[in-house]
Design goal:
16% strand, Lambda_DNA-bd_dom_sf, HTH_LacI, six-stranded parallel sheet, Rossmann fold, transcription cis-regulatory region binding, 434 Repressor (Amino-terminal Domain), 349 residues, single chain, alpha/beta, six-stranded mixed sheet, DNA-binding, DNA-binding transcription factor activity
């Protein structure tokens, strides 16, 4: 006979409703009872009906409940400026929105504002019945401080916006490598033949060189005279930039730094008349730019989806094989670039 929730409930000596909640890892059921029910269900070979599960999820999503489980969003950044950065705020807001849609509230722990020892943080998490963590950085050399190692053995955790080398946690990030490749494809389509990448080396470093990697791969599609190494934007400022620009004379610059537009204008170089400009993290306020929309909202939402899935599967530990979900970017047209091919044809006529 195929095992059912009722048969599992009879063996466990609890109600079918308790079994249903326990199999979803609901914190309203004690961890001891949850584990016992899950062990019995596994021994009996119980498998949830995917069609029924889908219908139940739809019903839950369509109604408001008084009880909400809680997730924790732990920002480990050392400096408040990293916490308040636009991209991070977008991730967090969309995570909270998505969690609410799935029946969760989110408690935030900003360690730059209120430092907590890991033991104290764990005490708070346990007292609130929290088993799922969303972690944000940035992290030094993509490594999360080892003082937090105990957390990964007791809670389900997903890293938001960055892929850590250590520990091996699952994560959700923008596909930065493909973001630059798409930008390069777009400027080539417009007829630009000497593109330059201008990003801070630290940013490229924490992104595992995915920005420079995407740029260099796409350079294979260019004539040799159009190839150049990425320009390392730094605190050296505009004088250093001017020297580089006059030496290399790119026809389009792909960057994360809006001040480059102002620096070029001081030289009398206007976009799109004299040069193309593309921003790799485009947002609605950048009306003078074309660029890549990194879909930060979907990064935050996907992190919650991944975490809820881990909780439903009772994966409260370091994963043996961490997963990394990447979110694609989209091209946003703008007035900082224009078609080049027609102009080249006209000048050669």
């Amino acid at each position: 006979m195929t095992p059912t929730i009722r048969s599992v409930a009879k063996l466990a000596g609890v109600s079918p409703a308790t079994v249903s909640l326990a199999l979803r890892n609901d914190p309203r059921i004690s961890s001891k009872v949850r584990q016992r029910v899950q062990d019995i269900a596994a021994k009996e070979g119980y498998k949830p009906n995917p069609i029924v599960s889908k219908l139940i999820s739809q019903v839950r999503a369509s109604k408001t409940t008084n009880y909400k489980s809680t997730l924790a969003l732990v920002n480990t950044a050392e400096h408040l400026k990293d916490v308040e950065e636009r991209t991070v705020r977008c991730w967090i807001n969309s995570s909270i929105e998505r969690a609410s849609e799935q029946g969760y509230t989110v408690d935030q722990f900003v360690l730059a504002k209120e430092p907590l020892r890991p033991a104290r943080l764990m005490t708070i998490l346990d007292s609130r019945g929290i088993e799922g963590l969303i972690i944000t950085g940035p992290f030094q050399d993509n490594i999360i401080d080892s003082k937090y190692d105990l957390l990964w053995q007791r809670y389900a955790a997903v890293v938001l916006g960055e892929r850590p080398f250590k520990p091996s946690l699952s994560c959700v990030i923008n596909d930065q490598y493909n973001t630059v490749r798409q930008a390069m494809m777009q400027v080539r389509r417009l007829g630009y033949r000497k593109p330059a990448l201008c990003v801070h080396p630290y940013v490229d470093h924490i992104l595992e060189s995915r920005l420079s990697g995407g740029f260099l791969v796409e350079q294979r599609q260019l004539p040799k005279r159009g190839m150049m190494v990425p320009y390392e934007y730094s605190s050296a400022g505009k004088d250093h930039f001017y020297k580089w620009f006059k030496q290399h004379q790119p026809d389009v610059i792909i960057t994360l730094h809006t001040e480059i537009k102002d620096w070029l204008e001081e030289l009398g170089v206007q976009a799109p008349r004299d040069i193309g400009l593309v921003h790799l993290d485009h947002e609605p306020s950048l009306t003078a730019w074309a660029g890549m929309n990194q879909n930060h909202e979907n990064v935050g939402k996907a992190a919650v989806d991944m975490l809820v899935g881990k909780l439903n599967r009772n994966e409260l530990h370091l994963p043996p094989f961490p997963k990394c979900v990447t979110i694609m970017s989209e091209w946003t047209p703008g007035p900082s670039v224009r078609e080049q091919v027609k102009e080249a044809c006209a000048s050669g006529a």
